[in-house]
Amino acid sequence: MSNMFRTCPDTGLKVHGPAEALIKANAVAAVVFLLIGGLFGLLVALTRWQAIHLLPADLFYLALTAHGADVLVFWMIFFEIALLYFASAVLLNCRLATPRIAWVAFALMLGGAVMANVAVLQGESSVMFTSYVPMKAAPHFYLGLILFAVGALVATAVFFGTLVIAKQEKTYTGSVPLVTFGAVTAAIIAVYTIASGAIILIPTFLWSLGLVGEIDTLTYRIVWWGFGHSSQQINVAAMVSVWYAIGALTVGSKPISEKVSRAAFLLYICFLLLASAHHLLVDPGISSEWKVFNTSYALFLAVLGSMIHGMSVPGAIEVAQRKNGFTQGLFGWLRKAPWGNPAFAGMFLSVILFGFLGGITGVIMGTEQLNIIIHNTLYVPGHFHGTVVAGSTLAFMAITYLIVPLIFRRELIFKRLAQWQPYLFGLGAMGISVFMMAAGTLGVSRRHWDMAFSDAPFAFDYPPAAFMMMGLNGIFAIIASIGGVAFIVIVVGSILFGKKRDEETARANPVVFQGGGATVSSHGAADEVKIPGTTILVAVFFLSFVLYYFVNWKYLSEVWPLS
Amino acid sequence: MTDSIQPDEQGGAEAEERIPAMQSLLDNPFLLLFIGVAVPTVLYTVWGVMEVAHIPIAN
Lengths: 563, 59
Ligand code: HEM
Ligand SMILES: [Cu+2]
Prior knowledge:
Shape of chain B: rod-shaped
Radius of gyration of chain B: 23 Å
Structural class of chain B: mainly alpha
Oligomer: heterodimer
Number of helices of chain A: 17
Distance between the termini of chain A: 79 Å
Number of strands of chain A: 2
Bound molecules: protoporphyrin IX containing FE, copper (II) ion
């Protein structure tokens, strides 16, 4: 048994061989789907750039479907399964429960993802990844998604099994580390998410085969968004765990308060999923009580959780940096942070961009009255490219810069490019988020091939500024794509051709802050908390938030002038 | 681990540390799993689908 473990020279953690192999497999699959899906995203953006208008209509909707499924579902969830195995087996110094079943899960997910891609590329399933009925895709499109969902559910069960083993075999003492707790949160959300997906897609699959007469459209939308929205919350919970993990591993940060951070995760567990209702704010037949309860009261509690993390992650870094000797002024800790380390830089950019771009705009969209200003416009993809691209994807890229040396045990190649990559991708992601939101504010529809309405029976003109926004969106899409391709080249290149890291190289060229391995794998808060710099950052955030919120109410009041 | 209360300061290692209720909730992943699945199932899915089921059917 013991020969299945190795001791990591960087972190001192015991690493279970089969767990390591599974982490690798899931991470590699994730990156492959990011590549495929990202390229489809570029094609979509270049089509919506009216001066280029690259794809014909049918291929546009095909590409959009492939983009949504590959990046939002397959890239994200494969990577999250890798993270779950890491946060359980590795951080708890434990063996992974039933590696064989974990491989079955992996095979199901991979088979399902490939099957869904084939269905989309065959052209009969351009139904968008939301696949709203009564639009009908080919049966193997739904079957692919179902297999993927079942596989992911099994993988989540392996994670919970590993928690049980770690407890029984006493591989850790007291509470699990905060990063593992965040992973528990993500896994809990995943159970509800994946179950919702399977529950609605199985009858839809039967319907596509002609075995079920009809699927109620409204019920479909309710249950489907239990999957579609909640999967974003797996992304959020996993991203926040990654923030804490990278902070611990790169600057040795400990949470400023374990209690508060865990309570914030508990708010996620209790309330985050209810916000799925914001996708149904204009659906008829559902009461305002249901809409307002689920989006306002519940959503605000969940947002509170995010704001706590948004403050406590930079706060923890400030405390650690001050302890590391960077005490100068209010922001000396931030200026002297390891900005040349792509793991740190990607993480911090992710925190900032997620908060300012994704977070604030999400609250606007989740408010029933304000939602109507931008419902189904490009503002919506603009918002979620702020959360899931500038936030989660960037954070996952950042931790990959640690996974490659620590788990794949390879030195990074193209280190210079790696240093720039988070900034490049972050800039591109910021641009697509901002300019899609700008176009959405000007009324431009999402999921629409021709914003010029060239052969429509009724002429309609968007303001010229809207066309400019889509041009800018295209330019930043190119920047994001270059950043994305750079990431893939560095990661795949390092895995294949990077110098092998043995104990000697690890000692000569450490990638983890001294003691970071122990910090990330134990619980306990920082002992002295002084965060004047973070307090100012948070104040700026709140100010922007309040301002933007009121600007939108003002804007709403102008939509229907009363006088 | 590093910052937990030092047993000796609390009156000897023997004195059982009482675990606060909140902590024992947070330390129980399966209880959390139950809460995390039950809350959205009831308040979002079941409530939502019930409302749709009560929409009168046109004839
Ligand atoms: C190179 C990077 C990317 C570019 C240039 C890009 C661009 C776009 C564009 C232009 C749209 C179309 C909006 C519309 O017409 O409705 C879109 C949709 C979307 N993107 Fe991206 N994106 C990128 C990366 C990502 C990533 C990494 C994710 C998820 C992790 C993502 C998730 C989505 C989703 C879910 C949609 C909506 C699809 C639908 O409406 O069915 N994108 N993206
Ligand atoms: Cu949502």
